[in-house]
Specification:
Rossmann fold; 7-stranded mixed β-sheet
Length: 242
């Protein structure tokens, strides 16, 4: 396996994903310039060779990636990694693969991997749609988490939302029968769209009448807690693969 390049702080602060002319679609994210702290840089240098997987246009062997055969859960958009690390720590019997485009977030999550001694977590710094399309084998996942994706709240930008019919169809093809797709958002109109899109995918069935109670494994983040204090809603959707 090729090792990812060692971090250079000045370069990585302004890092963008390499342009691939074969990938022509509307992106569901923007590449933000974020400060790479000393701790994140050290984590990238010392831990990325072990825990990060280079993006490739070929399916990965998950048992080789993790060094064992176990149910694998994909998390799309790990942010700064607190939720991902928490869930991976709760479920050591499962493998977790996190996908995130922003390198400071990868560095932050690698720090948590080290601090908590997590051996069941691997990371890919790349666009999730391309990762799912090319790297994840069909029917190989026990679950997928998509927590608080960018809501693109302006009407003219909503075509950029990640949870669209085509991507849900792709995710359903990668989830094994009996596996699940868990989405969460704090934007009500996005929750409505998610419910419509997920309910329209024939390979998925809703585990609730509409929105689900927050599963105990998903922690309440500090931003979510602040929103709840302000009276904002949070909607969880958990669908199972038929």
């Amino acid at each position: 396996m090729n090792e990812p390049p060692k971090p250079n702080r000045d370069r990585d602060r302004n890092r963008t994903l390499p342009y691939d002319p074969t990938e022509r679609r509307i992106r569901s994210f923007v590449t933000r310039m974020g400060r790479l702290s000393d701790g994140q840089a050290r984590a990238l240098e010392t831990l990325a060779p072990r825990y990060c997987i280079p993006y490739e246009k070929s399916a990965v062997d998950l048992s080789k990636v993790f060094g064992r055969t176990a149910p694998t859960v994909l998390e799309i958009g790990t942010g700064m990694g607190e939720t991902t690390a928490h869930i991976a720590g709760l479920m050591p019997e499962k493998n977790f693969m996190g996908v995130e485009v922003h390198i400071p977030g990868i560095g932050s999550l690698l720090k948590l991997v080290d601090e908590h001694g997590l051996q069941n977590l691997r990371l890919i710094q790349h666009d999730a749609v391309e990762v799912v399309t090319h790297m994840i084998p069909p029917a190989s996942l026990a679950g997928v988490h998509v927590f608080f994706p960018d809501p693109w709240h302006k009407a003219r930008h909503q075509k950029r939302r990640l949870i669209q019919a085509a991507f849900v169809e792709l995710l359903a093809s990668r989830i094994a029968v009996g596996g699940y797709l868990h989405c969460a958002t704090d934007w009500e109109d996005y929750a409505v769209q998610m419910l419509t899109v997920l309910s329209s995918e024939p390979r998925l069935i809703n585990t609730a009448q509409a929105y689900a109670e927050r599963p105990s494994y998903r922690p309440v983040t500090k931003f979510e807690r602040r929103g709840l204090r302000l009276g904002h809603g949070v909607w969880d959707l958990v669908f199972q693969r038929r």
